[in-house]
Amino acid sequence: MVRPQVFAPLRQRNFRLLWTGLLVSNTGSWMQFTALGYLVDQITKDPIYLGLLGLSQAVPRLLFAFLGGVAADRLDRRRTLLWTNGATMISAVLLGMLAASGRIQVWQILAIGAFNSLANSFDMPARQSLVPSLVGERQLMQAVSLNTMAFNGSGIFGPSLGGVLIATVGVAGCFFANAASYIAVLTALWRMDTPPANAGKKESVGEDIRQGIGLLLRHRHVLAILGIVAAINFFGRPYIRLMPTLAREVLRVGPSGLGLLQAAPGVGTILAVFLLGSTGEAAQKGRLLVGAAMATGAMVVLFALSPWFTASIGLLVLVGTGQAVAMAAANTLLQTSVQPDQRGRIMGLYGMVTFGMLSLGTLPLGALASVVGVPLTLALGGAVVIVLVGVLALTSPRIASL
Fold it and tell me: Which domains does the chain show, CATH number per domain?
């Protein structure tokens, strides 16, 4: 039986506002994600360009995510989120205008993707480090899993709706719909009544950076947790970016089928929320992280080798469940390992390895897919995840006791 604490964080008004706004805006983001991949694939017919799209988004994450974490520890996090979401809303309007003109080029898509990644480098640490102050540490893992559901769970509706819009009104319609979805999160942030945070910060930016680096030196298990997250995202999750090519060449489905494939991991995310809720606060999050990470790698291997559309949908649901559990456990472990005024920086590092490695991994795997094919490439990636997570767990035994 699912325990009531699964949804307990939603009883907090400010968290409920943030979560509801994110659910709507993330649905639009998934529509845009599907449309971007489809548009690049249609323009180029080469998976290497999907890899370049990932690279354009990886570089800003790798360069600025930690700086975004420093900003989250120094500035008011709610106001930071207002600025970052306003910026990405404007970029979605620009994408829609370019696509509607019929003259959009790949370099323009790459440039806007890089800009969005830069904005998200500041958005993610501020958003993640804001959550504990909204719900408290006792409900943190449930809140993190609900936020994961708001992002990946909206992937159930966003990609499917994106596929329908592509087929009916074109990719420009997806971009404009995404821009409109930001109204929800901007309204939610505006209505939140959280007190200004981080007032009176005395240290210099350089000192904040040095302290953030010191976190890794003092807490070796934190470095191992980040390594597991990096392995999942670099080698295991590029299937998301390569999905358009797999859908066209292997599963032989069009935009609507692609939307269903992109939506399937979101179903797994919802299952993960109930799974995490049923484990309770006493669960050993370290073991949960390692087990879920290795299961994710195994499911990616099976998905990559599946030639059947229906079976692929089911396997992607399991992939989504594994990665959502792993990410929620890692996020919670990291935030509870440091002081509240250091959470922005640790979430900056988390964002760097989560989204930066996901985007960065798409380029080499996309290049390999051009040579040996998408299925074999994804299968190799999943196998590497299993090996790396096993090695990190064995060399950092403290993780299992957390």
Answer: 7-192+205-401 (1.20.1250.20)
